[in-house]
Amino acid sequence: MSSRLAVTYSLAIVGALAVGACKKKSSGPSPEVTGLAAVPASAEVVIAVDVQRVVGAPLVSHAVEVLLQRDSVLADRWQKLHETCKLDVKQFSHVVLAIGPHAGPQPGTGPVLVVATGKLVETELAACVRGMVGQGSGGLTATPLGDRTLYQAKDSGRVMYFAFGRPDTLLMSASEELITEALGTGKKITDNPDMQKWFGMVDQRAPIWAAGRVDDRVRQGMVKTMNGAITAGPSAMVVSVDLSKGVKVEAGAVMASPADAKALESYAKTQLAGIGMAAQFKGLGKLVDMIEVTSDGSLVRFIAAVDSEQVNQLLSVLDGGEGSAQSPPPPSGSAGSAGP
User: Fold this and answer.
1) How far is CA 296 from the centre of its chain?
2) Same domain, 211 and 130
3) Residue 328 lies in a domain
4) For residues 67 and 64, what is the distance between their CA atoms, to the nearest angstrom?
5) Judging by DSSP bridges, how do beta strands 208-213 and 169-173 pair with one another?
6) CB atoms within 10 A of CB 114
7) Same domain, 70 and 100
8) In this structure, are residues 183 and 148 in contact, taking their beta carbons and an 8 Å threshold?
9) Long-range contacts: 146-151, Cβ < 8 Å, 24+?
10) C-alpha dist (Å) from residue 307 to 127, 238, 290, 313
């Protein structure tokens, strides 16, 4: 299974509930691993989700519906997993997604690790998966890994590994090396000094938060896009999302210097002005105007907060509607004038 497909499967598991790498292997398993403690230090990006706080959020539901519509195989497999294994949203509390170093020509193509915490029973899940993949040419094998069991599920040419870091924590990945590393005693993401610094820049109390390193190719591309106005693109991005009252998104770009941060702030504001004009045609001009861009030292923050009514307006446009009508433009002449 490709890492991109693994990301899709992982997000589908999280979302559908809302709707309905170092080369050296670790010497042995650790006593217990869960949450960030299960993520290897080699991970480039970490996304954490408080499942119970995002259940039923309109934007989450919409994203999952679109995801499943685009991948009929994924939709069918999730439906079978949901019905056969009797998975319920009440069983999950938190999910962490970690993406390892890129393994292909495109950024974000590294192996993916999913760490799901909740009310899960290893024997029941293994038996359920065995029954599902054993109906065709696939199957489930179990291999001892210290005092744990590493499961390999094969089905229709795809392979997925899973294991339990502790009784309430399920680990899944298409990479045997990554999941073995996660279960081992080697260094974890909390031992990575860069990640620790970036974690401190994001609100980890938010229902969804993320932090990760920006691929060098993306950084170089931003320098070209901005015609050399910055010396380097952001080294990292941090994001938090709160869905309790509409949607509030805070994103931060960690720049090489305060000067670069100021340059990106100025560039972003100019771009938003142009995007706002284009968004008028879809009735989203006011939403674009609500995006705030500020810089503080080497950090550039992008903040957007919209209420439930504005979320519905955005969803209407995403579904092919026209959104709400915008107010007519002011008459010609000086800004705010009523004519001669």
Assistant:
1) 25
2) no
3) no
4) 5
5) unpaired
6) 25
7) yes
8) yes
9) 146/28, 146/29, 146/183, 147/29, 148/29, 148/183, 149/122, 150/176, 150/179, 150/180, 150/183, 151/126
10) 44, 22, 11, 10
Q: Interhelix angle for 122-133 vs 72-84, to 10°?
A: 130
pLDDT of residue 54: 83
Beta bridge partners of 140: 153
- Long-range contacts at 2-5 (CB < 8 A, ≥ 24 apart): 2/109, 2/174, 3/99, 3/100, 3/103, 3/104, 3/109, 3/110, 3/111, 3/112, 3/174, 3/175, 4/108, 4/109, 5/158, 5/174
- Residues with Cβ < 8 Å from 18, sequence gap 6 or more? 51, 54, 55, 56, 57, 60, 61, 64, 89
- Residues 45 and 99: beta-carbon distance below 8 Å: yes
Token pair 């497909």 is found at 5
At 233, give phi and psi (nearest 5°): -75, 175
Residue 194's CB is within 10 A of a number of other CB atoms, namely 12
Tell whether 203 is covered by a domain. yes
Tokens 């999280």, residue located: 14
**119-136, pLDDT tens digit by residue?**
888 888 888 887 776 665
How many residues are recorded in the chain?
340
Low-confidence ranges of the chain (pLDDT < 50): 1-31, 324-340
Instruction: Tell me the sheet residues that pair with 171.
Output: 115, 163
Q: Which of 339, 248, 229 is nearest to 291 (CA)?
A: 248
Residue 277, SS3 per DSSP:
helix
Domain assignment of residue 120, given as a range: 3-191
Q: Which two tokens stand for residue 161?
A: 């590994």
DSSP assigned state of 232? S
169 & 23 share domain: yes
